[in-house]
Design a protein that fits this description.
Strand content: 25-35%
Structural class: alpha+beta
Number of strands: 11
Largest sheet: 7 strands, mixed
Shape: globular
Number of helices: 6
Radius of gyration: 16 Å
Distance between the termini: 25 Å
Helix content: 10-25%
């Protein structure tokens, strides 16, 4: 199982080169869209607290809530129009990130506890076309054009085989806070609690 974190901001579209290549059923340059690959050991298991590393506290790291999907079948070179068949769950995750926001190097992206998905995910039908995410007292609505779910699946499948259980974090958001040991993080999609994470 792998985690692919797309590093574009929610209000920025996929790179034009990626969009054009997908429309032509071609493969763009891998450098057209910044993404981070995380290992399964970076994942915080369901109902397990996130143990904040000492370096994250010393260096003022940030905790960011991001939308994610879970791949449900094996796929390679998936076309946009078929991408909906390749995921069956929509959810939220919390990423522990360095102060500048984007991890630099394998250790910064893949330490134990770097990615904490919610224990409950919604089916695409339950999630609907738009996601209204609430976290840290702030609400953010992401429409289909911001999520770019189908295009993101198609793009990722141009470079690597997607397997059942893989997670794709669709975009970055401004839903951020500092990690405080002893606190809890709760986040919802369309009013339904998806993420409930204790920080230790």
């Amino acid at each position: 199982m792998k985690i692919i974190a797309i590093e574009r901001q929610y209000d920025a579209p996929l790179h034009a080169a990626a969009t054009e290549a997908l429309a032509a059923s071609e493969a763009p340059s891998p450098s057209c869209q910044k993404a981070t690959l995380l290992t399964d050991s970076a994942l915080v298991r369901a109902r397990t607290p996130l143990f904040v590393p000492d370096f994250a506290l010393r260096e003022a790291w940030i905790l960011e809530v991001v939308p994610m999907i879970v791949i449900s079948r094996l796929g390679k070179w998936i076309e946009n129009r078929f991408a909906r068949r390749y995921y069956d769950a929509v959810g939220l995750a919390a990423r522990l990130l360095p102060p500048e926001g984007i991890p630099s190097g394998a250790f910064a992206a893949n330490f134990d506890g770097a990615f904490a998905p919610g224990a409950l995910t919604l089916t695409p039908e339950e999630a609907g076309e738009s996601l209204t995410i609430e976290a840290f007292g702030t609400s953010l609505t992401l429409g289909p054009e911001m999520l770019s779910t189908d295009s993101t699946i198609a793009l990722a499948s141009r470079f690597m085989t997607l397997r059942t259980g893989d997670i794709i974090s669709l975009c970055r958001t401004p839903l951020r806070t500092e990690p405080v040991v002893g606190s809890s993080l709760t986040a919802t999609i369309n009013g339904r609690e998806i993420l409930n994470l204790k920080l230790r």
